[in-house]
Amino acid sequence: MKLTRRTFVAASLMCTTLLSAPVAMAEPGAWSDEPVRIVVTFPPGGTSDLVARLVAQYLDTEFGQKAVVDNRPGAAGTVAADYVATQPADGTTFILANNAPFTIAPTRFQTIPYEPVEGFTHVAYIGASAPGLFVQPGLGITSVDDYLAYAKENPPTYGSSGVGSISHILGEAVNAKLDIETIHVPYQGSAPAIQDFRAGVLDTFYDMVVQNSDMIEDKEAVAIAIASPERNPELPDVPTFAEQGYDVVIENWVGLSAPAGLDPAVADQVNETVLAVFALPEVQQRLTDLGITHTAMSVGDYTTFVEEQIDVWKPLIISAGIAE
Amino acid sequence: MPEAAVSETDKTSHIGWQGAIGSALLLGLSLVFMLGGLQLGLGSPFRLGTGAFPFISGLLLAGLSTLNLIIDLRGSQLAEVPDWIGFLAISAALAIFALTAERFGLVPAAFLTTVVASLPDRSLPLFKKVILGGVVATGAWLLFIQALNLPFKAFVGV
Amino acid sequence: MDILSSFYGGLLVVLEPQNLMYCFAGVFLGTFIGVLPGIGSLAAIAMILPLTFYLEPTSALVMIAGVYYGAEYGGSIASILMNIPGTPAASITCIDGYPLARKGRAGVALFSTATASFGGGIIGMIVMAALSPSLATLALSFGPADYFAVILLGLVAASAVANGGALRGISMVVAGLMLGTIGIDLTTGDLRYTMGIPELRDGVHIVIVAMGLFGVTELIVSIKANVGGKSTQKIDYADFYPSKQEWKSLFAPILRGGSIGSFFGALPGTGQTIAAAIAYAVEKRVSPQRKDFGTGVLPGVAVPEAANNSATQTAFIPTLTLGVPGSPPMALVIGALMIHGITPGPRLLVEQPNLFWGLVASFLIGNVMLLVLNIPLIGLWVRLLQIPYKYMYPTIIVLICMGVYSLNNNVFDIWLTLVIGAAGYVMRLFKFEPAPLLIGFVLGPIMEEQLRRAMLLSRGDPMVFLERPISATLLAITALILIGASFAAFRSYRMTRNQT
Lengths: 324, 158, 500
What we know:
The complex is a heterotrimer of chains A (324), B (158) and C (500). Chain B contains six helices and no strands. By secondary structure, chain B is mostly helical. Chain B has two domains: 8-80, no CATH class; 84-147, no CATH class. Chain C is 76% helix and 1% strand. A two-stranded antiparallel sheet of chain C has the order 1-2. In chain C, strand 1 (183-184) and strand 2 (191-192) form a beta hairpin. The relative contact order of chain C is 0.18.
C-alpha cells in the first residue's frame, strides 16, 4: 500500500515538475528529525485547522515527517504570527498563513508585533476559496443589478462571520462599489448567520460559495455573485462580480510560512514536499470538499503573492471602516 | 469533620461590618464597569453601543451589591477561617509555573511547581518534596508529551 | 415514520466489529482525557481528529461522539473528587458532588452520575431518534429575541442553584455577565476593559475562569483542612451502590433531568449549561430532599448529569441537521464530517441515513460501554482520594497548570488563573459562590449578542420581545419566577430580622 502510494507520488511529481518547468529541484521528503509544528491562527475545527491537520497527517504517512498542529488563536491571528516570527528558523516551526494576520491585520491595527513579509520565509502556497453574496429566493433577485435596485429602495440586512471577517470586508466592499447602505449583522462564524438566514431573519448573507452549494442546489438561497476572478468549476452557474460589471475580487487563501531566515534549500524542499502532498488525489478531493482550489506556487512566487495581497486588501479594509 | 466545622463557625461568627467587605468590593467593581461602559458609548436602541451591555449589567450589580451591603452591615460571618499561608503557596506555585514553563521547559516547571506548592506542609521533609517533584514532573512528561502528544517542549536549552 | 426500522438499521451499522471497536476506543479515551482538569472534550476531540481522517465517516463520527460524551462524563469525576469542573455544566455537579465526596460517599456519587449519565443519554437518544426533524424546526423558529429570552430564563435558574441565598446568587450571575464583556466586542470590533493587554482581546477563556474559581480556590481551602498528614476520610470501598431507597429516589430526577436536557440541548450554543442549571433549579423545588440540596444529596448530582448527558446527545441535532455547531466541540464534529465530504445540513438525514442512524444507535451502545467501563473504575477513582492530600494537591496544581497552558500555549493564561483564583478565594470567604458566576460568564456574551442582534433586526423596537410568542412566553415565566423569588426572599429576611 505504502509503496504503491509512494511510487504514485513520485510519478505525479515528475509530471508536475515537467509541466511547471524551472522550479527548484529539491527532493520531497522529511527535512527534520524533530517533529514539525504547524501553528494555526484559529481554534480547532475551522477550515484552516482542517487543512493544517491534513498537511500534518500526510507529511507523516507519505514522507515520515512527524508534524503536530498547534492552535494559537487570538487577536485576529496576530498572536500566532507573532509567536512564529520569534521562533528559530530551523525548519521545525511553521504557520498556516492566511489573510487574518498577513493581509488584514497590517492595515486593520495600528501596530502589529511582526513584519508580515520580511518577518517570515513564505514557503508554500496551498490554495484559496472565494466568498459571494447570497439572497433570499423570495426576493426575486438574480443578479447584482437586481440587488442594487432592491437595496436602493429597502436597505437589506446582511449577515457576516463577524466584524473584520472576510465576509464583512466583502460586504462593505460591495456596498462601496454599488454605493448603497445596508444593515450589517455580525455573527460568530458563518453557521449561525446561515441558520438565521434559513429562518428568514436575514435578507442576505456573505460566505464562501462552494461550501454552501447544497443551499444553492436546494434553492434555499440564490448566490448572485462570487468574488473570485473567474467562475468556480464546481459551481459554473454562479457568475462573478467582475463579469456583471462590478470589479470586486476577494479570495480567502491559505499557505505555509516559516520564521524569517529559513535556509533556502530547506524552504525549497518543504515547498516540494507540501506540493507533493497536495498532488495526491485524495488530498485534492478533501481540499475540494472544503471549497479550496489548489494552485502550485514556488517559494518566490508565494512570497511575491503575500506582498501583493497586502496592497490588494489595504483599500478594502479602509473602506470597510475597521482600520484602527 | 463535624467537630472541626463547629469550632470554625465559632471563630468566624459575627465579625460585624467587616463581613460587608466582599459586597463593597463587588460594588466597586460594578462602578468601574459602569463608568467604562459610559466611556465606551451606550449607542441607541437600534444600534446598542459597545458600552451598553456592560453598563446595564454594572448597574444591576451595583444595585444588588448595595442590597447585600446593607444586609451584611447588620453583622455577618466569614464562610471559613482564611488560610493565607496556603493562599501564598498556591499563588507562588502558579507563578513559578508561569515563569519557568517557556524559559526552561515543561519538566523543570512541573518539578518547581510541585516543590513550591508543597512548601507549607511541614509534615513532608524537603527531600521528600524533591522526590515528589521528580515523580510529578516525570508523570507530566509521560502523560502530556508522550501519551497525549501535546505541543509542549519538555526542556528548553538555557 | 418507521423509526424503529431505521434505528435497527443503525444498530446493524454500529454492531459491525470495527465500529464497535472505535466506539469503545472513543469512550475509553474520552473518559481518561476528560478526567484531567482543564482538558475537556474539545481538546480530546482535537487530539483524535487526525485519526478519524482514515476511517469511514460513520466510524469517525461514532468515535468522536464517544470521545465527546466520554470526556463529558470524565469531567464529572474531577468535579466530584476535586471540585474542579471541566465545563460550566459540570460546575453544577460540583454543588452536591463534592460535599458527597467529603462525606466519604464519593463512590456512591460516582455510581449515581454513571447511572444518571446513562439514563440521560438514553433519553437524549430516544428524543433524537423520534424528534430530530421537529427539533431542528424548533431551533429554526428561534429568532434572536427568543434566544435572549431563553438565556434570561437560564440565568434566573442559575441564580437559584447557589446555596448562599438568591440575592447573592443573582449578584454572582450578574457579575459573570459583566466579566464576560471583557475582550473584543463582537458587534463592533472595539476593545472593552482589556487594559492594553493583547491577550485579553479575545476575553478570558471559560476554562481559566473555572480552574481559577473552583480548582485554585478549592486547593487553598483544602490545604489547611487536610494536610495534617493523616488521611481524614474513612471510605468503605465496597460501598459504591446506593441503598434501595436511594435508588428509588434517583429514578424520577434522572427522568426529569434527561427530559429537560434533551429539550435545551437542541438549542445551539446554550444547551448543556442551561439544561443543567434549569434541571437543578427545578429539582431543588420539587425534590422531597430539596432542603438538603447543596449539602450533598444524590439527586443533586444525578439531575445535572442526566441533563448534561442528554443535552450532549441532542446537541448533535442542530449540528447535523442545520450545520450549526452549538459549541467548539461540535464545530470539530462538523469539521470532521466536512473532511469526509459530508456537509451537515437539512439533507444529511435523507442522504446519509446510515450515518445519522448509526450515530443514534451508537449512543445506545456507547452509553452501555460507558457504564460498563466506569463502574469497575469507580473503585480506582475513589482510591485516588486515599492518597494523602500532601501528595495530591501539588499534583493537582501541576495538572491545572498543564490544562490551562494547553488552551493557547501561553503563560499569560496561568497568570490570569492566579488572579482569578485569588479573587475567587476572597469572594468565597464572603460567601459568594462561583457556580452562578461561571454560568453568567459563559451565557453573558451569547445573551448580549442576541439582544443586540434582535434590536438591530427590529430596527430598534423593543416590542419584538413581546410580539414573538416564544420569547413572550419565556419572559413571562421568568418574570413569575423572579416575583416569586423576591417575595420569598423578603419574607425570610423579615423572619431573620424579627429573630435577632
